[in-house]
Write a structure and sequence with these properties.
The chain has about 350 residues and is of the alpha/beta class. It folds into 2 domains: about 190 residues, Alpha-Beta Complex (Quinone Oxidoreductase, Chain A, domain 1); about 130 residues, NAD(P)-binding Rossmann-like Domain (Rossmann fold). It has 12 helices and 18 strands. Helix 4 crosses helix 5 and helix 4 crosses helix 10. The model has no long low-confidence stretch (mean pLDDT about 95).
Length: about 350
């Protein structure tokens, strides 16, 4: 079967690999659509980050080259002995977190904070940029009626956004700013709408992404035209309650902190390629907080329920659909060069 495999930064190859053979406790899935994630793009541009290269990942036991793709939907084609959560023919999405189940966070149910955290399709396991994949039963969630496979491919990134908002201190009626409105930033805007934010500001340079943010109900601020911190303080009469940093750009982190009001909170959603510095007094003198979030936990069913209510719409967020053979030129390279792209979905056939 065809598979897109990561060998090193700027080296992803579409090649033939063996189709997975069903095992006890496993679910085999025919992949329908897989999204290219910002994390995938980081691995392509500057990896490895989550890809194991020096030694096998402790959970997947895989080492590069690995099949990529962790945002996907598909149909169950086979189930292993002991599987009773799903049946052949079920339409499913996969929660791709790899966790050990034994460390302190795992024992407390916070598996996304696992000491050996990895992701199916980033840390091995055989990801969604392939015709078939196989996962543990607990990773599979049945899709509700009415949800398309394209919509299913957005469940994983939407889960990141919803988890970010749920873990923040935001309450209904609060004001929020989102720095960077690529795919995750736009989904954060949707999650803020669902959470009842009264005012949502989007700080972004790309005119195309600004237009998308405005379409979703945000008030856009272009930092090339105005000082975003000053503008946010002016528009909100003192600053937003919560800022979400979704760029991974060092200078932006300080802007996100500075745009919040006294006792404001900044939530870091990005995965970073380099260090960032902040002025601690900007936190200390106003008793502000900075919080990091990673991935999600216990949230996929809620995401799909919100999708059935019209949130996280694939129709609004998917800008391109491509074949697996074209994943490098029309997928990864396009996302690096074309700022009008939001979410690109890949068909493995």
């Amino acid at each position: 079967m065809k598979s897109a495999r990561w060998y090193k930064a700027k080296d992803i190859r579409v090649e033939n690999v063996e189709e997975p053979q069903i095992q006890s406790g496993k679910v085999k899935i025919k992949v329908e659509w897989t999204g290219i994630c910002g994390s995938d793009l980081h691995e392509y541009a500057a990896g490895p980050i989550f890809v194991p290269v020096d030694k096998p990942h402790p959970v997947s036991q895989d080492i590069a080259p690995i099949t990529m793709g962790h945002e996907f939907s598909g149909t169950v084609t086979e189930i292993g002995e002991g599987v009773n959560k799903v049946a052949v023919g079920d339409r499913v999405v996969v929660e791709p977190i790899l966790s050990c189940g034994e460390c302190a966070p795992c024992r407390k149910g916070k598996y996304n904070l696992c000491d050996s955290l990895g992701f199916h399709g980033l840390s091995g396991g055989g990801g969604g940029f392939s015709e078939y994949t196989m996962v543990d039963e607990h990773m599979v969630h049945k899709m509700p009626e009415g949800l398309s496979f394209e919509q299913g491919a957005l469940v994983e990134p939407a889960a990141v956004a919803l988890h970010a908002v749920r873990q923040s201190k935001l309450k209904a009626g609060d004001k929020a700013a989102v720095f960077g409105v690529g795919p995750i930033g736009l989904l954060v805007i949707e999650a803020l709408r669902a959470a009842g934010a009264a005012e949502i500001y989007a700080v972004e340079l790309s005119p195309e992404r600004i237009a998308k943010a405005e379409e979703l109900g945000a008030i856009a601020i272009n930092p090339a035209e105005v000082n975003p911190v000053e503008k946010l303080h002016e528009l909100t009469n003192g600053g937003v309650d919560v800022a979400y940093e979704v760029t991974g750009v060092p200078a932006v982190l300080q802007q996100a902190i500075d745009c919040t009001n006294f006792e404001g909170e900044t939530v870091i959603v990005s995965i970073w390629e380099k260090e960032a510095s902040v002025q601690p007094n900007n936190l200390v003198l106003k008793e502000k907080t900075v919080k990091g979030i990673i991935a999600y936990r216990d949230i996929f069913p809620a995401v799909m329920e919100l999708m059935n209510q019209g949130y996280f719409s694939a129709e609004k967020l998917v800008t391109k659909r491509i074949k697996l053979d074209d994943i490098v030129t029309e997928g990864f390279d396009a996302l690096l060069k074309e700022k009008n792209q939001v979410k690109i979905l890949v068909k493995p056939e």
